[in-house]
Amino acid sequence: MASAIASLKTPEEAVARIAYLSSDVVISVQPSLGGASAFSPKLEELLLANVKGSVAGLSERIPEVQPVRQNADPLLSVYEPARSGKLVSVTTTSNTLISSIPHLYKLINYPIVIHVSMQPAEYPDYSEITSIRQTGLILLQSESTQEAQDMAVAAHALALKSGKAVVHFFSSSEKSEVSVEDPALLERALDRSAASEFRSRPVVAGNLYADDGVRATVRQIGEIQGEAQGYGASGTATPVDQTTAVPGSTSSGSSTTDDKSSRPSVSSASSVDVPITTRDVTSEDIFKHINSIFAVIREVTGRSYSVFEYSGPQNAEVAVFVFGSSTSLFRSTLQNASSGEYEKVGVISARLYRPWFGTQLPSTIPRNVSKIAVLEQIHRQTTRWGPLFLDLLTCLRTGTGVKGAPSVVAHKLGYINADTVEQALRGVVQNLKSDSPIQNLAVGLESAPKDEVVKPQQPGVESAYMKILDQLFGSRLHVANSLDHTNAGISAEIAASPEYGYGSLIARSEKRKAFIEKAEKLTKSSEFSTPGPAEALSQWLLFADDEIKGAAAAQELISKLEADDSAAAKELLADKSLFTKESPWLIGSDAWAYDLGNSGVHHVAASGKNINMLVIDSQPYSEKSAADPTRRKKDIGLYAMNFGNVYVASVAVYSSYTQVLHAMIEADKFDGPSVVVAYLPYNKEDDSALTVMQETKKAVDIGYWPLYRYDPFAEDKGGVNFNLESARIRKELQDFLSRENHLAQLVKRNPSFAASISQSYGKEVRQQQKRTAKDAFNKLLEGLSGPPLTIVWSSDGGNAENLAKRLARRGKARGLKTLAIAMDEYPLEDLNNEENIVFVTSTAGQGEFPVNGHEFWQQVKGATDLDLAAVNFSVFGLGDSHYWPRKQDKIYYNKPAKDLEKRLKEVGGNLLIEVGLGDDQDPDGYQTGYSEWEPKLWTALGVDNVDGLPDEPPPITNEDIKIASNFLRGTIAEGLEDTSTAAISASDQQLTKFHGTYMQDDRDLREERKAQGLEPAYSFMIRCRLPGGVATPKQWIQMDDISDDFGNHTMKLTTRQTFQFHGVVKHNLRNSMRAINKSLMTTIAACGDVNRNVMCSSLPQQSAFHDQVQAVAKRVSDHLLPQTTAYHEIWLKDENDKKVQIAGDAVVDHEPLYGPTYLPRKFKITIAVPPHNDTDVYAHDIGLIAIKGEDGNLAGFNVLVGGGMGVTHNNKKTYPRTGSMFGFSPVDKVHIVCEKIMLVQRDHGDRKNRKHARLKYTVDDLGVDVYRSKVEELLGYKLDPERPFHFDSNIDTFGWQKDENGKNHFTFFIENGRIEDTADFKMKTGLREIAKVHKGEFRLTGNQHLILSNVEDSSLAEIKDLMTKYKLDNVQFTGLRLSSSACVAFPTCGLAMAESERYLPVLISKLEDVLEDNGLRHDSIVMRMTGCPNGCARPWLAEIAFVGKAFGAYNMYLGGGYHGQRLNKLFKSSIKEEEILAIVRPLFKRYALEREEGERFGDFCIRIGMIKPTTEGKTFHDDVAEEDADEE
């Protein structure tokens, strides 16, 4: 592809390039085969450069360009490639149109594009276009080079979407230079799936001159309309009433803006036959498609187009409708006219000429327009009235709207130019305003228009760094090569270059220097008319180079100068921008890194001048080049550091936002040249932030992009010259820097971290590790007898690994020499030499090998030297036959095991026994199949009858770990001291949960680190215990400090109403815990098999009542707190071994409530205050519903027991459950009631099967009445009957509210609870600044939001100013977004199967347009998403929920209660984004149209029969909308 800085000088060049990139075949119509057309040079240039096409299917081939003579009936050449399923475009002039009319009629239902350059170029004749207006072709027009480029893209996109031929006609009289197209525009606009479908269905036709019978059609599935599919939807001629029954199809596609894969899909199956019908594409379909394409163009380029375009005042009384090549001239003349001359005149043009959407015209033009002049550029007008005049007359002067419609006056548009356009316009307007306008008045003069220059544009994705610069320096920022600057006589390309920018900065510096010298002279003169300026000028000179004090002095000085009438004052004011010390910057790309000497980098570094450079490197780490070292980009940072007087920083905004801020501030303050090299990897300029972040994390973590700051003079000020800030590899690189000169080391790029040789080196390291380990084990086995058995496993959840290791132990007991090894550790070259080998593999994704087996399988599959004639093998697979419920997906069940067995047979392997298949759906899961397979294996190996086999020790369970832990101590303290690994032992991982922390690893980096021979990027999540979610401003600041000092610079507000930190590495764990403890918080029992954080309604409107309820939450939490001193011993001891007990006072080593084994599983309690169920009271083990007494105070609580959310996919023995009502408890006894409920669970809960250990199963196993009786037996009395209550919702109320005491509360919208700073939104900084002045409290909500509580009226103005400054006062989001919630999922959660927190906002954005269009913007619809079925975001209570099944695939649930009172139910299984959008968008529309008054979305889905209600947890799996295809 051409470089982004290349340019296109004519409309024909721009169009030729788009046609080439968007087609399989380009028919290039030329005057002769030896004579080039205006399109030909660009087509040949692309062809010679072997440029490949942009549409899917062309990725491996180069488009074909067929030159055809103009007089050789050129459109005949279209038939053959179009019929064979190729995308065809034609580049031609208007001279060929009339002679081609016979072909046009037959080509209208193929997605071909005909690009027409209007001729003659100086004065085009538009009668060529009007002559084909009745052929049924879509006619799209443009005028300038930029419009021609954009409309060329639109033409190809529209042809694909509609399946119909499009003629794009444009004037070539205006030749302006533009940049090549933004790749993102073609990527988003062209429908790849439609192109693929068209290619897959060629048309069989034997006669060029007969109609093919092909039609552009729309496919409809049931009552839901699919996208206009063109050829792809119907293939060949189809009767209009054709209906096809497709078994099991209920899904459909819908056309959406920027939706490439919105085809109706019959793969989303149910058991109901749904008819598929087709109909012809209509003009309404075309209208919809062209508007969606225009929307894409606007989003990518910022340029707006519409079917009819109007420019001019909204109070216009007359308008000029131009159909010719001078529309822009008329527009510019009106815009530049002197005041009053044309103040009520507008210009209209038609972007889409056919189909003619006349009904849209009245809404385009102002209401006051009474007359329209129609200017038609038609040379050979054969009728009295021009075609456009008749079109307007028909749509404006007929029908019900004729009364008051504007009158239409015809004009003949002649040849005009910039010199004559004003005269022509004046004549038209005067004619219009006369009492009797002259019809068919001719206007126009001859000349040539001027070129229009289109400036280059900065990629939108790079705006992150520009926003940071703007936020930091504001009006002080001066970007010398900014694309927004106007430079007289300088082209935009030159003005954007670093050389020009450098020169302009030098000149600007010299100008300010001279300005200061002038100011110094004026202070000693008497040229001012008043004494004030001289005094103020002297004061300013003292601080002229101080950006803060100088700015303050400048304001005072300017006010004095403005009050002075002297010439000296006016002279200074003429350059008043120089009073401020600017922050001078040059902005560039990594293109500068290929020639440092000539790119401006050398000039800046060598100059010694105070100039800052920001160089943005956009090369993704995954696309690093390692083939030819001599052609790699130079290291700009290293180059600059070698000068010895340059400040250098290497930063990455998607890795450390804070470091970017520090670097830019330091660069600005540094007295000399500064170079900030900034990483922003992207493949396309519209790459998502998630994609950029993942690429950044890989590069920084591995060391390809180290983060550092280098100040050559820092040591002189008592600092350190070189600061390395790459969090995970800080120690490794510091070791390198201490051994050798750091500059030399950076030049060498140590292989462990270098991108340039990471592939070869990483592979070599891994192979050597494999070989060493295998050889060492072989030596160990030399002294043993018995045949060898190698067991190779690949596992993602641990089951296959455990099974393989158990098999190895049993084999060893039978006398075999066994080795169990992971697939990615096994050297493939040893496979030919094995005697007996067994493979055990689980199944990941869509029938894929797990991560640690993927590379091995690729090697086995592609190996050409495998010969297993002497190798005996067998395979056992673990899978779930119901995981992918659709019949066509059954092939994924245990696919890795089946594929591996097949491949090993192909290369000669001898099968010991047939493949064994473990199925999670069997009574004992995979063990059922395994118990049949293993004995056969021992028989095949001849070791089945072995006496004296030792008894196998039972597997270690969580209960074993707890009872052996000495009240949660385990070996945690020893593990923290182990510096050889960033991890802790498996048993300690279970125990640390009780202490409030989980070990995790960054899954974005897992594969890359494995390839580098590194252990996973282990870190820890820490969760605070914060009863009721109430924190002080001081605590907020302390939490913020902890996230910056020890975490990943973000905080998570959880669905359990507390703080959570991520990215805490092991050596910071103890410091983090101590810091939390010093803030008077704790983390003990925030996780683990104990009572966790007690939640409480936030209730901003009833603060007094909230205080009473909050006190109960605190009492219950404290009462049920574990009593072990292990927490204090491990985390809080100081250097003198003294316990530092600040937030706790535990003194004994026993557990009076829990005992040594604690609870069978986690235990959760929440309190809700009607009418707000904002804590999902039904979802917890104990739910307390606060009841207000007659005196307005808290009387007690209704008690719900047995709620819980955790589920296992496809395991119907697991289910979510809502709590059962047990009765009422008074306030003073409720903590004892909670205790007794917990004790019954402690004694009767299932301790053998953790999937069945939650309280909800105990309640169902015993029965509600029995469980209640056991509780009442412990209490010694019966609970009172429940008291009446009512819930309205389970969401938060956003914005400002006053409570009964007159205090103010503001609920912030914190999307999915993530507190962080970004370039666009400095949320974290803003909240910290508010905490510094806030005198009330912060309340965390159960929906992951934040309430600023108890703000006095006297503080309101200051708080509001801060909120406005940091954009924290915005709650104007859709009701869907405000009601959404997501768990963390990737990259840190080890249980996540799919994205959640990072993806839900994206999905909602793709749904919000349908909400807007259907009046649902402000309607609350509760949508939740989790990355796995454990239910952290409580998805089972949402009205619509998505639960991760595999990466990119989700189960969809509908029908939850809006108040959180009813569980939802499975609607669709394992669907991806295309299917989600295809289902949800029309469903939202239907909800808007058919809902009853006050009806909530979940209730609506049940009423219309979309889903059946879930009456209790045990019926959660019953009557689901999509049963497994094999289930009866």
List the helices and strands and how they pair.
Blueprint: E1 7-8, H1 11-21, E2 25-30, H2 40-48, E3 64-69, H3 76-83, E4 88-93, H4 101-107, E5 113-118, H5 127-130, E6 138-142, H6 145-162, E7 166-171, E8 178-179, H7 183-189, H8 192-199, E9 217-221, E10 224-230, H9 231-234, E11 243-246, E12 274-280, H10 283-301, E13 308-311, E14 318-323, H11 327-336, E15 345-350, E16 352-354, H12 361-364, E17 371-376, H13 387-396, E18 407-413, H14 421-433, E19 441-443, H15 463-473, E20 477-479, H16 492-495, H17 498-523, H18 532-542, H19 547-562, H20 567-574, E21 583-589, H21 601-607, E22 612-617, H22 636-641, E23 647-652, H23 657-669, E24 674-679, H24 689-702, E25 708-710, E26 722-724, H25 730-739, H26 742-748, H27 758-781, E27 788-794, H28 799-813, E28 817-822, E29 836-842, H29 851-862, E30 872-879, H30 895-906, E31 910-911, E32 916-919, H31 926-941, H32 958-963, H33 972-977, H34 986-992, E33 997-1001, H35 1006-1011, E34 1018-1023, E35 1030-1031, H36 1033-1045, E36 1051-1053, E37 1059-1064, H37 1069-1078, E38 1095-1096, H38 1103-1119, H39 1126-1131, E39 1165-1168, E40 1182-1188, E41 1194-1201, ...
Parallel strand pairs: 2-3, 2-4, 4-5, 5-7, 6-7, 14-15, 14-17, 17-18, 18-19, 20-21, 21-22, 22-24, 23-24, 27-28, 27-29, 29-30, 30-31, 30-32, 38-39, 39-40, 48-49, 49-50
Antiparallel strand pairs: 1-8, 6-16, 9-10, 9-12, 11-12, 13-15, 23-25, 25-26, 33-34, 34-37, 35-46, 36-37, 36-45, 40-41, 41-42, 43-44, 44-47, 46-47, 50-51, 51-52
Helix pairs in contact: 1-2, 1-6, 6-10, 7-10, 17-18, 18-19, 36-43, 38-40, 40-42, 41-42, 43-44, 46-47
